[in-house]
Amino acid sequence: MHVDNAQDLSDGHAFAVRLMQHLVVPTFVLDAERRVIIWNKACERLTGVMAEEILGTSDHWRAFYDEPRHCLADILALGSTEELDRLYETHSDPATGTLGLKAENWCVMPKVKRRLFLAIDAGPIFDENGVLQAVVETLRDNTEQRLAQMALQSLAVKDGLTGLANRLSFDEKIEAEWLHNKREGTPLSVLLIDVDHFKLYNDTYGHQKGDACLKAVAQAIGAQVFRQGDLAARYGGEEFVVVLPNTEPDAAKAVAERIRHAVEILALPHGASLTCDHVTLSVGVASTVPDESGSHDTLVAAADAALYQAKHAGRNRVSIGAVVPA
Fold it and tell me: S-S: 319 plus which of 3, 260, 288, 310, CB 3.0-4.6 Å?
């Protein structure tokens, strides 16, 4: 009877392995020492890595990444859930680790040479004494859905004409940076930018040419706002805005001058302009160190007042507003 039971267990194990090998879901299994004991056909198709290359090793990371790092099954086997935030874009609550983990991540997939966004599940297998025997990791290719989601998010935050951030993005950015710079005690600067005599440009050349002009101006502005954390946005109509966190007034003025010059050298013809024969910008700059007594609305209003001064002084220039009182 004991022999029969042992044979039944052996047959059952072999059947389970064969079943897992032919699952349509890409799946691999690690033993308690994190060695690959199963690498199914679907996993081969997804990764381009054959089972014979990986079985018995702990090199499964090579199928997904171009440098050594833990996969979700490793994290579960090691109990190192503190790594989740660093390694995965999204993941389940680490406290559920004994029940399994879920995560999503971009993987570079070196063998198939294409970047995939994978939804990953890792589940533990324990013996009757609660000792970990293996970890099963399953994978799902969510690249198409993720790219579609990113496209929708991009539409939500970008201006449809110019490709810069839209007004909603600016509103959210200026509020967040006001709070951040207030907490850090660091300066925050804003540039308000207006295309000079743009109504006359539209009336002379038509709205199609006007749109092309705004696109060219936006591209020139964006090319000068390249520091991580800065934001260039379309404020509305022919107005643009730039948010410069951690930026002193003199540095903000330098950015404003670069932007003004970048559009000037485009030399976009503007025969109807009252001040120049090509498209130019007027720019207002304002800076402050945020504190409890002020608001980001006050900062934007100061930049708007400086912009008005630039226009009143003859356009195609940068005007520096008074530093907003703290």
Answer: 310
CA distances from 147 to 66, 122, 159, 308 (A): 22, 24, 19, 42
Please report the pLDDT score of residue 9 as a whole number: 46
Q: Which two tokens stand for residue 176?
A: 């967040």
Domain ranges, residue 86:
2-147
Kindly report each contact of residues 300-304 with a partner whose C-beta sits within 8 Å and lies 24 or more positions away, as own/partner.
300/174, 300/190, 300/192, 300/241, 302/190, 303/190, 303/191, 303/192, 303/241, 304/192
Residue 180, SS3?
helix
Kindly report, residue by residue over 213-225, the tens digit of the pLDDT.
999 999 999 999 9
Give the catalytic positions in this structure.
238
Low-confidence ranges of the chain (pLDDT < 50): 1-3, 6, 8-9, 326
Tokens of 171: 């509103």
Bridge pairing between strands 231-236 and 132-141: unpaired
209 and 308 together in one domain: yes
Q: Give how far Cα 227 sits from Cα of 47, 230, 231, 287, Å.
A: 36, 6, 9, 17
Predicted local distance difference test score (pLDDT) of residue 326: 45
Query: Of the candidates 134, 168, 175, 141, which has an alpha carbon nearest to the alpha carbon of residue 153?
Result: 168
The CATH number for 181's domain is: 3.30.70.270
Instruction: Specify whether 168 is located in the same domain as 316.
Output: yes
